[in-house]
Amino acid sequence: MILTVRRAAYNSLLRLEKEGRYSNLETDLTLKKEQLSQKDRALYTLLVYGVIERRVTLDYVLGQFSSKPIDDLDPEVRCLLRLGAYQILFCDRIPESAAVNESVKIANDVRRSASGYVNGVLRSLCKGKEGIRYPEKEKDPIAWLSVKYGYPMPMCELFVRDHGIERTASLFAAFEGNDGTTLRVNTLRITREELAQRLAERGIHSEKTPYSPHGLKVKCAVSELSELADGLCFVQDEASQLCATVLGAKPCETVIDTCSCPGGKSFSLAMEMQNEGKLYSFDLHANKLSLVRSGALRLGISIIETACRSGATYFPELAETADRMLMDLPCSGLGVMAKKPDLRFKNVEDIERLPAVQYAILDNSVRYLKKGGRLVVSTCTLAKAENEELIRKFLSEHCEFVLVPFAVGGLDAPSGMLQLYPDTHGTDGFFIALLEKK
Fold this sequence. Notes:
With 438 residues, the protein is of the alpha/beta class.
């Protein structure tokens, strides 16, 4: 059966609600399976990600028109109401009548007894949306942030604790505006200028990244980029590209990437090393290391050796073998919520346990670094406890390490630590620290 785009979106949202799937995996699977036109594929993606990103806002608004608490509704009804409400509130090009009627059609198919309820709530929303009561910033700033930007209140409190109300609002707004794809050019095979010219000849406009010397930004669908399959580039955010640049790995050195999957940073390191030397790519998850191996093969990289190893477990044969190390520590991911909207619903208690996990990896793995060697610690989060506070704690207990000032892409880090922000730099929220073993 060929599904309508709204039915496909509803099915995905219901699976995400019931089974806790990751949205990117669910959407990828649906787009491969269902026979949707290019226009419908774009609408499907907009609806699924839009409902996820605005779930908190939608539930707040629907609560003003539903006779029953939204949390008490069956998942099928809740998903239909959210899907219809998202179109009514946030999709200017979709007629309200279409949003209501299509939702009722789906209700008739999946839960006929609820179709009248869905119809009534959505029609009431259409009539009364101008009178919706929203939290006031001055009276309840946390609730205002939560409803305006679609984040659970505990997540808002976590951000406000580190960044304050105004900066949190700026960061949340920046997450909404993050679009396009950033490529890291495979400099083993082609220059940035040559790749840009090749794309232009195919009608694909690209822009040079302002900080990374190896990046290009494009706004086309990734499926249009044959250059990925040809091994001329790979997808990597500009902030992530800077890690390898800051580490300064050179040809013929021995480098360890302790938490390497899915492999982007290892690939960048190999390119910085001109594919000469030894590069060990370790990760806790053996099944993900195949991504590193296949990616290296596609890109023409031969110096990477993968192994399933926990960063928190000591392997004495590696003691003081590395000239340089990269530790992209497991983190909360609070800097990449533009790309992974599911993360906004992450349990704050789980986030607060992460620094201990990070410290165990850092404390153990630094033993592999030679005296005089350099180490980059990075995360894709904006949580201070996982970034500068973690580094300060580490330095207080490891007097043999010092922070090293650095500059990269016109950005100065005199303290040896650099925090990148989506609202300031237009990158993922990302942290980089450079240390040296005395």
